[in-house]
Each structure stands twice: as C-alpha cells, then as structure tokens.
Amino acid sequence: MAISDVGKVCLFSQISGIITLDGKPVSHAKLVRTVGKEKEITDEATTDENGHFKMPAIFGRTITKFLPMEFVVRQVIYLHYEGKEYKLWSGVKREAEENSESRGKPLVVKCELNQETNLKQVNGSPIISLCTWDAEPDKINTGF
Amino acid sequence: MERTPLQTSSLARDVYALTDIDTLEEAYRILNTNYKGAFEFSSNDLVKGRTGGPGLIKCRTAFGFTLIGKGKYEGEYFIIFRGTQYLADWLTNLNVLVSRSACGEPVHDGFNQAFMSMKPQITNFMNALPKGKIKAIHCIGHSLGGAIATICAEWITKTYGYKPYLYTFGSPRVGLIGFADMCTKRVGVNKIFRVYHKTDIVPFIPTWPFYHTPSFGLDYYLYSPGNIPWATYHNMGKYVESISKIGDSWKLLAAHRHEKHSEASIINWLKHNTVTGLSITALELLNEAVLFVLKKCMKGAGWILSDGFSTTFTLLDKIAYILHSSIDISKKISEWVVHLIRRMLQILGYGHIVEAGDLSREYIRDVFIKIQHKVNAYAKDALSQTLVKGRAI
Fold first, then answer.
1. Measured between beta carbons, which residues in chain A are less than 8 angstroms from residue B10?
2. If residue A67 lies in a helix (H) or strand (E), which one and from where to where?
3. Collapsed DSSP state (helix, strand, coil) of residue A126
4. How many angstroms separate the CA atoms of B138 and B78, rounded?
5. Which of A27, A92, B100, B337 is 20 to 30 A distant from A69 in Cα terms?
6. Which of B89, B388, B391 has the highest number of chain A CBs within 10 A, making it the mutation to test binding with A?
C-alpha cells in the first residue's frame, strides 16, 4: 500500500456490463450514478450500440472531520431510456474495499429492464437492482 | 421478554444500512427479507408519512429507526439508534460539558443534545403505543447509538413509568456515577445488556469521572485479541461475528464475562512501584483504583460528583479537592492518595517519589489533567488507526 493510499476508500467499484429490455440491447441510454448522502458525487455514462456500459471506480478519502460512522455509503444508479427512468441499482456499501459488491471479483453485471427488482446482499451490503452478477449472496441469520 | 444477542446485534448493525438506503420502501423490503416479517409496516405509514408509526428518526446529528413487532413479536416495540461522524469530535474533546438527563442526573452534553434532537419523534412513537398492550420496549444502539439508547431508556422510565430493555454494543460512557446508578436502578439491572470487546477503545472514553451503565451487576465482555485498543473491534460487524461464534444466548455470553478486578488486585496494583505504560489492563485498573481511593476518601458521604451543568475540568478540580482534604484527615487514607498519585506519575513516565506533604490540591489536579491528556492522546491514536484502515468509529 502506498502512502497516498492511506485513508483511501472505495465508494463504488468499477461496474460494467450489458443492459437489455425484453432481451434486446438498450443502446445510447444514459446512466446517472450517485454516491453518498450528504456530500454526493455524481457521474454519468452512456451505453453503446450493443447495450454495453462501463463506469470507473469512485474512491473517497476519510477525513477526521467527516469520519463516517462505520463505513456506510449509499449507491444509486438511474437509467434513462426512451423517455423512461429505471432505477437500475440502489444499495448501501458497507465495506471499504474495492469490489466488495462482488466478493473481490470485477463487478460485471447483466441488467434486464423488464423485470421486478431483486434484493441481493453481499458482504453485508444490501443491493436492490435490475441486475444479476456473479457473487455468492450472504447467508443471513438475524435470529428472527 | 428480552431479545437475544444475535437479534439485537443484527438490528444495531443493520440500522446503518436501513437509514442510509435511498427510500423507506427499500428499507422495509430489506427488513422484511432479513427479519422474516417480524415487523409491521402498514402502507399508510409510507404514503402519509404519519408520525408515531414505524420508520426513520432523522436529525442532523443522529439517526434511528422505530419498529413495531408483529405475529410472534406482537406488543414489542423497538427503538434503534446509530451514530454519526460527530462522535470522534465528542470523544476526544477533553473538556466535556455535562448537562442533566430526564431524571436530573449528569450526562455528557453532546450525547444528551443528540437525544434531545430526536426526542420529538420518539415522543410521537411512544405516545402512539397502545397502552396496556405493551409487552416490551427495546432500546438498542451501537457506539454513539448505544449512548443515546441509554439516555432514551432512562427518559422512558421517567416519562412513561415503563422499564424498557436496553442493549448497547461498544458504547462510550454516558454520564457521571449519579447517572449510571440512577439509570441502572430505574431500568433494572436485569434489563440492561452492555456488550463490549476487550480491545474496543470507545468504551474507555470519556475517561472518569464518566462511568458505564449498568454501574453494577452484569455486563457482557467479548474477547478480542491483544492488550492494545484496536479500532477494528469497534465495528458493529465484529460484534455480530463474536456473538455468532459464542452462541445466541445471554447466558453463554455471560460465561465469557471478564471478572471485575478484585479489591485485592486493585490494592496490589496501587502498591506496585514500577513505571507502567498504558494498556487496556492498565486503563481498567487505573479506573477502578480512582474509584476505590475516592470511595475511601468519601466514606459513603454521597457523591459530590453528581453535579449537573459542569465541565470535566471543574469535576477534576473537585476530585483534587476531595483527595487533598483527605490527606489531612487520616494517615491511613492519605496513604491511598499517595499510592494513587504515584501510580499516575508512573504512567506519565515520572519515576520520582512523592510524599503526602508534596501533594497540594493544584498538584493533584495537575496530575489528573495530565493523565486525562495521556488517555485521550492514547484514544485518539487508536481512533486514527481507523483512518488508516479506511473505516471509522
């Protein structure tokens, strides 16, 4: 770990994949990603001809004054396509490591817009999305 | 009936994600899945955002969640608190302001203010509960959330004449001994579950004259490796992990309990004569020793330290006054004061020998303030490790 990495945390890992509607690629659609709650970071991407997209990892730094209570980061992605808005991803990242959403592997998703959202929990982070990706979900036992 | 260690620690952990996820509907969906429909949400609560039902408690400095049990859990109500980034500032502030709790006892003003900011919403929730049908109210919190849950529990006993259950995980010390005693008595020692890891630094601060609730009876000590405070073991996830390893019962947890230092071991420590660094054990013993010597000096004359509206520095001044006055009263007691100050000087790295005659009130006060600085610097150090690890209290 380099000195410059001290206090570096991953707010949203690099995410890439393919988006479809009824199985057909969703091309030239705009993705808007928002990270955090009070101090929001937003970025955008567009799908290509084949419905592929890629968004880089977003890193942050912990600063004494703004120490988060535990590591808790809100993650939201909206997709805008043919005048409609789809909530592609809504989660809370609870681990600071990169790719914690996919247990250390690169986060590569397949998203189908015409379906119900599903809830997946990985590394203590709940994610409600229209996507599937390769990561073993948590075994949850709350005692209830 | 009380809820289990796994149930309460899961709620204390999940309140972070539940208060942070984008919408309340999403929070309810996660709750329904992970808690197998144990909680009731009517669609009315969502649409009208009516006050008094289950949902978010939202304030600038604090967050929480209120839940209503259903089915097997009918008649049970849950108030769950999480902390904020302000905790670090409050905990490392040396000169803490003290204000009065619901019962008029002295508590950390920062924690009290955080509770007060949420009180209107908790009042709405409490007022909406069906009277006569309440089986249990559970106040739950991790870290600062534990401190707020403690203040909330005392407030419920005073305002509603009801004894809630109180569960805290890695909570800092909330108030002076007067508060700790009052809260323990009012809530009931059997209804308080204070869980802490051996090497979690947060339960060590603020330092005396702050004390933990319960001030007597059982607490639940979880093993964590080493003798140096380590931020990792403050993480709520680590608490759930330790509990899962031991088993989901308070009895099993109590079996892991850390024996309180016996009077003999405190006396032994006081009379010991070597330069000591700070460690978890030294902190524990120092804490017990201060209480031991103060009690000797005061002979049950009542706690002068339960004044409200005071600051740490004026409290330390009072401690110095009590210790200094005792030096003249009896030789036996003055010996204890000398032992304590010697040990404190050794912790500060001073090897020289002091005698009773050297101890002016100003000198004693100065030693106490220096020790406080040292303990706080030690705590800050542990807390800044969190920065390096990229996570925080």
1. 142-144
2. none
3. strand
4. 5
5. B100
6. B391
Contact residues, chain B, for A126 at CB < 8 Å: 17, 21, 30
Which of A80-89, B232-241, B300-309: highest mean pLDDT? A80-89
- C-alpha dihedral (B318, B324, B325, B328), degrees to nearest 10: 180
Q: What is the pLDDT of residue A37?
A: 72
Q: What was the ipTM of the complex prediction?
A: 0.93
Predicted confidence at residue B60, as pLDDT, reads 59
| B91: nearest Cα among B369, B318, B378, B341 | B378
pLDDT, greater one: A105 or B321: A105
A142 vs B14: CB contact, 8 Å cut-off?
yes
pLDDT at B263: 83
Q: Is B226 on the interface with A (CB under 8 A)?
A: no
Question: Per residue in B225-235, pLDDT tens?
Answer: 776 666 678 88
Q: Looking at the predicted structure, is the pLDDT value of residue B59 above 90?
A: no
Reading across the β-sheet that carries B55-58, which strands appear in turn?
Answer: B55-58, B63-68, B76-82, B136-142, B165-169, B192-197, B220-222
Evaluate whether A66 touches B85 at the Cβ level (below 8 Å): yes
The answer to whether residue A122 scores a pLDDT higher than 80 is yes
Task: Give which of A33, A42, A69 to mutate to test B binding, by max B Cβ within 10 Å.
Answer: A69
Tell me whether B213 touches chain A (CB under 8 Å). no
- Higher pLDDT, residue A10 or B257: A10
A&B contacts, CB < 8 Å: 114
- Are B391 and A6 in contact (CB < 8 Å)? no
Q: Are B14 and A121 spatial neighbours (Cβ–Cβ below 8 Å)?
A: no
Q: Minimal Cα–Cα distance from A136 to chain B, Å?
A: 16
Q: Does B388 touch chain A (CB under 8 A)?
A: yes
A5 to chain B, closest Cα gap in Å: 9
CB < 8 Å to B193, chain A? none
Q: Tell whether B15 is within 8 A of chain A (Cβ).
A: no
